[in-house]
User: Which sequence fits this backbone?
């Protein structure tokens, strides 16, 4: 049986496919003092739902994204090494996190295996090494349980129902905050939640859409 999200509680949505999710988690000590629940979702499924094209499909965007991730890592002083291929299939790693009921610390270990050590978790050898890293035997069997597969689908569907369109995304005070660079906004809104109720924020949040 799958478990739905408690949308009254703060959530952090991530996919191991995202270098910016890794970079944001490495700044966990700067996050608001709120018990965010880490929830793995499928970024490709989010894109498919919203009709977004993956940045990897646009050569110039793909190159810029990797350069930007490296730049941010160097700027923040965070160790960073791209895996040997990208994008890779992150489903095995996501299901492993679900099977382990991974907390922030365990999720960080998986991210570091991929984005600090530069490993591909989608290959048989890479996944086996990842399981060793997190101290799990028979990980390949764990991720095939129907309940585990279904939970990933449920997580992604629940995220879509909230309007989540990418990762990393915070859900806090029933509002979405997307992107590694949104952390200052998250911190500000944690301290000053009534900002989102200000006249100008309300005005721009309901702007009519023009024809393009």
Assistant:
């Amino acid at each position: 049986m799958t478990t739905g999200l408690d949308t009254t509680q703060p959530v952090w949505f991530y996919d191991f496919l995202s270098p910016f999710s890794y970079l944001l988690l490495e700044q966990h000590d700067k996050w608001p003092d709120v018990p965010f629940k880490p929830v793995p979702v499928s970024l490709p499924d989010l894109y498919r739902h919203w009709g977004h094209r993956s940045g990897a499909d646009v050569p110039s965007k793909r190159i810029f994204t990797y350069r930007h991730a490296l730049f941010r890592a160097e700027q923040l002083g965070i160790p960073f090494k791209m895996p040997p291929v990208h994008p890779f299939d992150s489903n095995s790693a996501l299901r492993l996190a679900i099977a382990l009921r991974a907390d922030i610390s365990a999720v960080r270990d998986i991210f570091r295996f991929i984005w600090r050590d530069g490993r591909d978790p989608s290959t048989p050898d890479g996944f086996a090494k990842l399981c060793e890293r997190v101290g799990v035997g028979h990980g390949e069997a764990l991720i095939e349980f129907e309940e585990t597969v279904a939970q990933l689908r449920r997580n992604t569907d629940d995220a879509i129902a909230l309007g989540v369109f990418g990762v990393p995304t915070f859900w806090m005070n029933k509002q979405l905050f997307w992107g590694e660079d949104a952390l200052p906004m998250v911190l500000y809104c944690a301290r000053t939640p009534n900002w989102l109720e200000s006249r100008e924020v309300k005005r721009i949040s309901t702007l009519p859409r023009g024809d393009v």
Notes: The chain has ten helices and four strands. The longest strand covers residues 11-14. The beta strands are 11-14, 37-40, 169-172, 175-178.
